[in-house]
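hi! just following up on the protien thing from before. the input was this:
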Amino acid sequence: DSYEKEIIFAVEGPIGEHIIEVNQGRVRVKKAPEADPLKICQKTGWIERTGPTIICVPNNLSIWLESTNSDLDGMSW
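and the predicted 3d structure came back as:
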């Protein structure tokens, strides 16, 4: 929560490069590779709490947030 400046970095995968943005304790895929036909990971938008996950199956990418301050010790669905 204390980030004053956004962090943007690239992650390379089998079908191209994802641009990831981290800002104020949240994360999103800012830009998906052109070879990703549906760009679901980009359309997911920001995640800002534990639980939701951003996944791009064609590029073998998954992003989630972890917290050390949680009452939960596990989750499944």
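The beta strands are 7-13, 16-23, 26-31, 53-56, 61-64.
The CA atoms of residues 13 and 60 lie 7 Å apart.
cheers
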